[in-house]
Amino acid sequence: MATTLDKVDVVTVGVGWLGGIIAAECAKAGLKVRGLERGKERGTSDYYAVHDEFRYAIRYELMQDLSRETITFRNNAKMSALPMRVMGSFLLGEGLGGAGTHWNGHTWRFLPYDFQIKTMTDEKYGPNKLGKDYLIQDWGITYDELEPYFDKFEKTAGISGEDKNPFWGKRSNPYPTPPMKKSPELNRFEKATQNLGYHPFMLPSANLSEAYTNPDGEKINACQYCGFCERFGCEYGAKTSPEITVVPTAKKTGNYDIRFHSNVVEVLKQGNKVTGVRFIDTVTGEEFIQPAEVVVLTSYVMNNAKLLMVSNIGEQYDPATGRGTLGRSYCYQILPGATGFFDEQFNTFMGAGALGMTIDDFNGDSFDHSDLDFIHGASLSITQTGNRPIQFNPVPPDTPAWGAEFKKASIENYTRTLSIGGQGASMPHKNNYMTLDSKYKDAYGVPLLQLTYNFTDQDRNLQKYLTEKCAEIMKEMGPKTVVPSNPLTDYDIVPYQTTHNTGGTVMGNDPSTSVVNNWLQHWDAENLFVVGAGNFAHNGGYNPTGTVGALAYRAAEGIINYSKNGGSLV
Question: Where in this chain does the record put each Glucose-methanol-choline oxidoreductase C-terminal domain (predicted)?
Answer without folding.
Answer: 428-552
